[in-house]
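[recover] target loaded
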């Protein structure tokens, strides 16, 4: 040996006991050559070698006896040993035979199926054991690694001559920068890690656990003695299995590895992290798989490990390799330093941000992969810098955790039952985790610890920051991302947001939709898991909601509590110091818009409404239906659920864009009519108001119309659900309508107050101006759909089914149908419809159908008219040539309605308020509230008009009604009622005419003698009587005599029968030549009046006087009466004189 050392220039000297050699080597010597020379000079039988710790090892020469100790001239060769000669020549290439190190590596790394002789096994193991305990190698290490040792305090302090120094250098080999030292230690490592018994202290620390767990024999066996990687693998499996044990399990069923052995196992795993050759079990298990998947990946720096991890779930991966990889991954989960690349890449960042300096944490906790990930993720989320290399490593291991649930002991421990029941056979590519997420989301049946374990894993892996971490989601959504989100950089957090925005659209595929909702279910329960929102809102959350750091979680806060706090302050806080920043508010709105797509993405809503969802909404499974269902059953919900749904609905009223599905459906209308309000960053109810106003535009599709109407219906349940109404009228409601909650009741209360103040001409309106304006908007919106007036709708539900079953809701069509079938309605419904009509006649703007059909005509004729007088204006322009036929038809309908009851004609009611009780009290006494009088009062007033006994205002209004009804018989309800049989029988042709110009009335007059029904005959006679009072009441006669009136009666004002008297006098005057048609019509009228006088004699003196004064021949009649009176007077005088003379004669006698 001394000769050998001298050859290479070493100076050697024996120790005092002759057992330890010291040497000095020149720096220029190649350490690998030096190691090979030592190997060639090292023989099995050398004495003086010590085992680790310095104790003499007895019997270490077993197997060395009988072998030549003498060295050949070229040194001792393993290949020349009789025990191994045959195996070497069979297994190892010839060029390696002269290199003991190459032969050693060749025999160590042989294929599983290649056997070597037992004697050779034993020879190799003793040879390697001697090497690790030979002080000469330590001496070489001292010289080769001199500068490195001085730089590593732990190694510099190790006692020399006991084997500790080389072991220490191996431990710290990642810190060795000196090339020669690194090469030397690397080769020594490949020798040491081929057998657990060669690692300093390992056997002493794990002897008991090996025996207890039956991981192999401590004593030398007969086969494969130099490759004891299976023993370490057995211990590693036991270690990771220990983490999956239930702590509540009895001691009898549990096992626990000693702490000293646990540390030794983890240290072995850590030291073998850079080169997969050093993990002997994994090396042999994955040797073929390495060739298949990672053939071109060089060994070192953990690259082969990572390559194999990435292909773990490939179909070609062997089960044996897959198990070995899983074991190593589980060790990495327990201690991140077992991953060479991760530990190296993140070491500076860990030190910089003191992630391994947390004194409050146990050392084992700090080493866990989850702790490293959470700590560094928190750093990234705080906006601080973590090296790109470290972030890349973190991304790989976050993806690894999401792919394989079995790497998370908490999931294995707490979700075992759920996995067996619902998710068996879905192990790979993250499918088991997504299955658990689906079970939690859809059924809510996960046990609390399992739910918490899943939530913790999502926080550790943080897939919200990069969707690629979730392999199942990535694969399912790849096509959607390529089409809908291609404008966003790959890996950007906005990808998830983009996917949510396309949820339930044509671009979304079902598998992606499911995976996305499963992940979002858990992200929604922790506001920090949305990285964009966390970045924008972390300061606001800390200031307002008292939150902690990203990786600190309060056990006292329920899921979603922080986000609830943020959105409350985003929408409701008016105090300057409590407002959210603009950026944060924008993010809160974004999240609200996305999560409104599914009630399960609102933790508070799902938690409080779980029972109600099952009770009321179990069949509502389509997108958005569950929330609509809860809103529909608001009154039936449990108090807690009702509060949450109410609060969310209140938010929607302020920002309807939260209803993403509705906004999508209404996109055409928004683009055409509401784009200005939609573009506003802050929506205060304007968008919904715009959608309601344009609800019947051609761009409005069915989905949008249904959604808008539904929201209107929900708003009726509580006035707080109408944001603009609430903000405008909240003070008025508190003052005038306290304790009223339903919107419809609040509207009625406030409108009644406004009406009373107006009618009483109060000096000051009690309802504020801003509230009155918004109140008008609400009233107009409610008039569009009967369902928006719940009391009316409920009262008429059965009538709608019977009479309006095929009529579509909206556009006030159902209300119009009820009006047309008013005579057939149930009493309660009839009363409600009558009240509605009374309100509409007082305020025509509330008559939706009238305003819709006559919209253009109102602009043309009534643009400057007060809203209360719109119908009056339309009536005045009804017969204009420019009047739209449809509008004219609608005006006629309203006139017919008005003439059924004076209460439905506010102008008439006001003008005749003194005349009605004076002349028609008997009719009022028999009338019932909310039931039409079928024109009786108006008929009564018509008769008094003929008698010329009405006040001037009332007479003017009755004159208008008479003129209108004379042109169209339908405007005379009493005539229609009494002559319902006679009109079709006698005047069918006239009724069929497209436009009514008095033909039906003229037909009835002409056929007066043919009328059988006494009531009808009386009505026709009344018409004749009324026509005496004013020629305008007789349109046929007026048309025939228009020229004669102009020539003969131009100076005579109309009314009070004056023009009719003028024409009658002209008829009697032979000097006047009337138009033939006028003369004929006048003669017919005289005959009719004569017949009327016979058929219907005066009922009393007043009636007789009225007939005389209204008669066209009243001058003749009055002159005759005067002559009679004079004659009677003269006769009286004559009789008186005669009587007086006779009386005087009698006295004289």
């Amino acid at each position: 040996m001394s000769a050998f050392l001298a050859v290479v220039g070493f100076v050697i000297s024996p120790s005092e006991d002759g057992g330890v050699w010291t040497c000095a080597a020149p720096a220029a010597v190649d350490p690998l050559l030096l190691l090979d020379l030592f190997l060639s000079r090292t023989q099995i039988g050398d004495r003086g070698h010590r085992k680790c710790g310095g104790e003499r090892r007895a019997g270490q020469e077993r197997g060395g006896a009988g072998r030549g100790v003498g060295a050949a001239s070229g040194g001792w060769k393993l290949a020349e040993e009789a025990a191994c000669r045959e195996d070497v020549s069979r297994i190892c290439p010839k060029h390696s035979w002269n290199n003991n190190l190459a032969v050693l590596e060749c025999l160590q790394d042989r294929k599983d199926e290649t056997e070597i002789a037992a004697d050779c096994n034993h020879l190799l193991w003793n040879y390697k054991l001697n090497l690790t305990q030979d002080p000469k190698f330590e001496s070489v290490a001292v010289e080769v690694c001199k500068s490195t040792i001085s730089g590593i305090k732990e190694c510099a302090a190790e006692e020399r001559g006991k084997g500790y120094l080389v072991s220490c250098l191996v431990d710290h080999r990642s810190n060795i920068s000196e090339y020669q030292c690194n090469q030397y230690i690397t080769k020594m490592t490949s020798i040491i890690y081929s057998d657990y018994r060669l690692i300093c202290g390992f056997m002493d620390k794990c002897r008991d656990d090996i025996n207890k767990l039956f991981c192999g024999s401590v004593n030398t066996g007969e086969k494969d003695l130099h490759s004891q990687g299976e023993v370490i693998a057995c211990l590693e499996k036991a270690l990771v299995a220990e983490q999956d044990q239930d702590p509540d399990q009895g001691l009898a069923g549990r096992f626990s590895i000693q702490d000293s052995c646990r540390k030794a196992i983890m240290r072995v795993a850590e030291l073998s992290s850079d080169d997969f050759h050093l993990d002997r079990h994994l090396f042999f298990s994955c040797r073929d798989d390495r060739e298949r998947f990672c053939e071109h990946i060089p060994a070192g720096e953990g690259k082969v490990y990572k390559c194999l991890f990435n292909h773990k779930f490939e179909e070609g991966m062997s089960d044996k390799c897959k198990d070995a990889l899983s074991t190593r991954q589980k060790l990495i989960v327990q201690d991140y330093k077992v991953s060479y690349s991760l530990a190296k890449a993140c070491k500076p960042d860990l030190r910089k941000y003191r992630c391994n300096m947390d004194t409050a944490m146990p050392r084992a906790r700090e080493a866990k992969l989850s702790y490293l990930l959470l700590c560094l993720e928190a750093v990234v989320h705080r906006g601080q810098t973590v090296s790109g290399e470290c972030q890349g490593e973190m991304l790989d291991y976050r993806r690894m955790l999401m792919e394989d649930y079995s790497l998370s002991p908490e999931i294995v421990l707490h979700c075992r039952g759920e996995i067996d029941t619902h998710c068996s056979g879905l192990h790979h590519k993250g499918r088991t985790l997504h299955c658990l997420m689906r079970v939690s989301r859809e059924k809510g049946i996960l046990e609390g610890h399992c739910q918490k374990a899943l939530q913790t894993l999502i926080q550790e892996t943080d897939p919200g920051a990069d969707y690629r971490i979730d392999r199942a989601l990535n694969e399912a959504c790849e096509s959607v991302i390529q089409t809908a989100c291609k404008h966003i950089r790959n890996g950007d957090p906005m990808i998830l947001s983009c996917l949510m925005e396309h949820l339930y659209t044509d671009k979304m595929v079902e598998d992606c939709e499911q995976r996305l909702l499963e992940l979002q279910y858990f992200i929604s329960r922790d506001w920090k898991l949305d990285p964009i929102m966390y970045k924008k809102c972390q300061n606001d959350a800390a200031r307002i909601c008292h939150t902690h750091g990203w990786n600190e979680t309060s056990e006292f806060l329920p899921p979603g509590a922080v986000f609830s706090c943020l959105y409350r302050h985003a929408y409701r806080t008016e105090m300057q110091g409590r407002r959210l920043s603009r950026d944060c508010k924008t993010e809160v709105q974004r999240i609200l818009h996305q999560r409104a797509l599914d009630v399960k993405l609102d933790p508070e809503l799902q938690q409080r409404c779980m029972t109600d969802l099952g009770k009321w909404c179990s069949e509502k499974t389509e997108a958005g239906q569950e929330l609509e269902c809860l809103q529909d059953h608001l009154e039936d919900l449990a108090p807690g659920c009702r509060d949450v749904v109410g609060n969310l609905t209140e938010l929607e009223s302020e920002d309807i864009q939260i209803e993403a599905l509705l906004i999508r459906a209404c996109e055409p209308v928004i683009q055409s009519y509401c784009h200005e309000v939609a573009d506003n960053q802050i929506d205060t109810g304007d968008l919904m108001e715009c959608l309601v106003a344009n609800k019947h535009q051609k761009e409005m599709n069915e989905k949008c119309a249904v959604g808008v109407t539904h929201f209107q219906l929900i708003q009726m349940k509580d006035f707080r659900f109408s944001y603009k109404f609430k903000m405008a009228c909240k003070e008025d409601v508190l003052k005038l309508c306290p304790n009223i909650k339903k919107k419809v009741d609040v509207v009625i209360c406030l409108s009644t107050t406004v009406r009373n103040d107006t009618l009483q001409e109060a000096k000051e309106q009690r309802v504020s101006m801003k509230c009155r304006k918004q109140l008008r908007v609400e009233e107009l919106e409610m008039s569009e759909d009967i369902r928006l007036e719940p009391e009316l709708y409920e009262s008429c539900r059965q009538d709608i089914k019977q009479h309006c079953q095929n009529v579509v809701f909206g556009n006030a069509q159902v209300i119009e149908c009820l009006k047309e079938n008013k005579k057939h309605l149930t009493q309660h419904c009839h009363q409600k419809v009558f009240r509605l009509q009374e309100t509409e006649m007082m305020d025509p703007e509330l008559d939706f159908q009238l305003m819709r059909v006559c919209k253009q005509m109102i602009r043309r004729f009534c643009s400057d008219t007060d809203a209360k007088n719109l119908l009056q204006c339309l009536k005045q322009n009804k017969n204009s040539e420019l009047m739209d036929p449809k509008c004219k038809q609608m005006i006629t309908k309203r006139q017919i309605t008005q003439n059924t009851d004076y209460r439905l004609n506010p102008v008439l009611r006001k003008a005749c308020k003194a005349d009605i009780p004076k002349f028609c009290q008997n009719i009022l006494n028999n009338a019932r509230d909310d039931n039409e009088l079928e024109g009786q009062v108006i008929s009564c007033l018509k008769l008094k008009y003929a008698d010329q006994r009405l006040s001037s205002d009332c007479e003017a209004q009755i004159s208008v009604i008479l003129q209108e009804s004379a042109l169209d018989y339908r405007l005379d309800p009493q005539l229609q009622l009494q002559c319902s049989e006679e009109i079709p029988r006698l005047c069918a042709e006239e009724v069929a005419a497209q436009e009514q110009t008095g033909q039906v009335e003229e037909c009835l007059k002409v056929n007066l003698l043919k009328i059988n029904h006494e009531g009808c005959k009386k009505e026709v006679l009344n018409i004749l009587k009324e026509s005496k009072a004013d020629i305008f009441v007789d349109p046929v006669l007026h048309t025939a005599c228009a020229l004669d009136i102009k020539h003969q009666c131009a100076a005579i004002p109309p009314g009070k029968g004056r023009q009719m008297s003028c024409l009658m006098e002209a008829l009697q005057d032979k000097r006047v030549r009337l138009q033939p048609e006028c003369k004929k019509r006048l003669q017919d009228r005289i005959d009719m009046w004569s017949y009327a006088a016979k058929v219907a004699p005066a009922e009393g003196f007043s009636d007789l006087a009225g007939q005389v004064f209204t008669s066209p021949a009243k001058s003749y009649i009055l002159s005759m009466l005067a002559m009679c009176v004079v004659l009677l007077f003269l006769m009286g005088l004559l009789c008186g004189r005669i009587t007086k003379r006779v009386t005087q004669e009698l006295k004289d006698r």
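[recover] notes: Confidence is low (pLDDT under 50) at residues 1-28, 45-73, 217-227, 359-363.
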